[in-house]
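Request: Could I get any protein with tokenized structure?
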Amino acid sequence: MTNRSVAVLGGAAVTLGILGDALLRATPWGVGFFLWVAALVGVTAVVLERHQEATRLELALLFVAPVFFALGLAWRDAEVLVAWNVLAVVLALSVPITRSIAPDLRVGRVADYIAGLVAAGFSAAFGPIKLLMEDVDWEAGGRLRLAGGIVVGVLLAIPVALVFGGLLTSADPGFERLIRTIFDWDFQTIASHLALTAVVTWITAGYLHSVLHGASRSPIPREPLGRPSLGLLEIGIPLGTLIALFVLFLVLQAEYLFGGEDLIRRTAGLTYAEHARSGFFELVTASALVLPLLLAADWVIDKSSATTVTRFRVLASVLIALVGLIMLSALHRMRLYLGAYGLSQDRVYATAVLLWVAFAIGWFAATVLRGRRKRFAFGAMVSGFSVLALLNVINLDALVVRTNVDRAREGRELDVEYLSQLSADAVPSLLAALPDLPAEVRCTLAADVTREWGGEHEDDWRSWNVSRSRARSGARGLDPTADPECAHPLE
């Protein structure tokens, strides 16, 4: 890397650092996060394109995902969904680094994607050190050495000035007045801005350096990972045990299905509703854990024997079929739960995870069990992104409101307290449902919505979010006291 390239990269990192301080300081994150990620993606795309390591189509595929999921923070307000969107942005941004490990992402191993994510983290933390120590030619000329000395001196002076300046101004009011007369600055605010700018600059420089490093040098050698080699007996016993457990469980579930509530009450001491409420998350977890178990078993099985491989694939296929039935049992409980208790965020998220696991296990059967293990990781990642994109599009909090309100119209109980605690995504649906609700429920929900989202809010524009904006706009037009059936005033 030439000194000119280092200077350009450093300038881009500093610019993104300043932009990060301007856009990421306001919380909760919203449109500011989207704008900063879009800027980072744009700079990274330029870096890759200039080094001719990716076509425009590849660049579009690499960077659509982080921009889309960053947009999710300016779109949706549900806390879990926001966390998943941020995680998806981080994973998607690590993909350009993964390309230096697995040039063809479509056949990248799970280990390659994990290695890319870890490499991105290490680069963000330590990349700038490598940039300064290895990529800068400090003997290139006197001007560079002079500039380097100035930069280092300024960087060292900043914390010294802040620390000692703060101590002295605290020690002597006269000195404080003098400093404030000369420099009418808020040192605490300045320190806060400098710290955030420095952190974002450092992380960005490390990330860009890693992208550039991977694009400008040959891919990392992909030596086979050392692994143990186990025979059919060692693998077959645990898989067989799991198959037996699943069969016993499914037999009992079949009895419940055909025996009805009386059998459930006699056997488990539960009503149908209580049966539906229990076990759903455990079933989702059990289904999800089968996938890494099968991946690990395929990794360690002795592939030198065709007979061993064939029998393992038979066992794995049986287990996959049983897991499919376990998932159907979980969905059956979800249906019963919905009829008895209504819908909740946790159930929607768990169902989404279950759908992704179902696809991933099916993809495992189509790839790994057919000797195409290298194609598994990419398909699993794309399917995960697809499910998360679907969650962003459908607005799950609004779905929860609509489902539970429809149940209330049929005379079922409505958990008003739970609905009032949902995110801003739910507010438009809540407002639309108010006229059809009983007076007591309508007044309580209207008061809760007005209290949470009405009135004046001094929001920073960087925290602007579609859902929060719509919620506040709707709440400002709501006046619970104008409803003659709402006897109590808004507190």
DSSP finds 20 helices and no strands in the chain. Residues 215-225 have pLDDT under 50 and may be disordered. Residues 3-216 form one domain. Residues 212 and 354 are 38 Å apart (CA to CA).
